[in-house]
Amino acid sequence: MAEGGKCKSAQTTCMKKYVKIYIDSMGYDTSDVIPCEICGAVAVDIMHIFPKGSGGSYIMDFVENLAAGCRRCHEKYGDKEHLRRHVVERHEEAMQIRGYTYRKWLIDLMKVSNKSRIVKAITDNG
């Protein structure tokens, strides 16, 4: 991508940085149909499990914080703290199925923690 978020050429497929991180980390190709990690429907979004306002800015682009979701699940689960553990658990299963070696300590922390504990753990663990 060029500055300002515009593609360098018409031949280049533009995608947000976090979408590329998700696709590359999970072993997908840009032509793959990616399933929603919650319900199995076709995913249309890569969502942040911990949105920026909920501490996600510290783990924003870690694949552990990125999940594929259909529109219905994104609306149902996105930015709803009381449902976050369910999304984290489904995402952990998806990472295992795709063979991604993830930071288990971060996933475990995401299941039970708030912003300040996650920031401290990331600072301590890198």
In short:
This protein has helices at residues 17-25, 71-77, 84-97, 104-112, 115-125; strands at residues 45-48, 66-69. With 126 residues, the chain is mainly alpha-helical.
**Largest sheet data:** 2 strands, antiparallel
Per DSSP E runs of 2 or more residues, the count of β-strands stands at 2
Flag low-confidence runs. Answer: 1-5
Shape: globular
Taken as a percent bin, the fraction of beta residues is: 5-15%
- Class from secondary-structure proportions: mainly alpha
**Distance N to C terminus:** 27 Å
Domain tally: 1
Compute the average pLDDT. Answer: 80
- What helical percentage do the residues reach? 25-40%
Can you write the helix and strand succession as a string?
Answer: HEEHHHH
Output the strand order for the largest sheet: 1-2
* Discrete helix count: 5
Radius of gyration: 15 Å
Describe the structure.
This protein has helices at residues 17-25, 71-77, 84-97, 104-112, 115-125; strands spanning 45-48, 66-69. With 126 residues, it is mainly α. The chain has one domain. The chain has a two-stranded antiparallel sheet. It is globular, with a radius of gyration of 15 Å.
Write the layout of secondary structure elements.
Elements: H1 17-25, E1 45-48, E2 66-69, H2 71-77, H3 84-97, H4 104-112, H5 115-125
Antiparallel strand pairs: 1-2
Helix pairs in contact: 3-4
Give the key terms:
about 5% strand; 5 helices; mainly alpha; about 130 residues
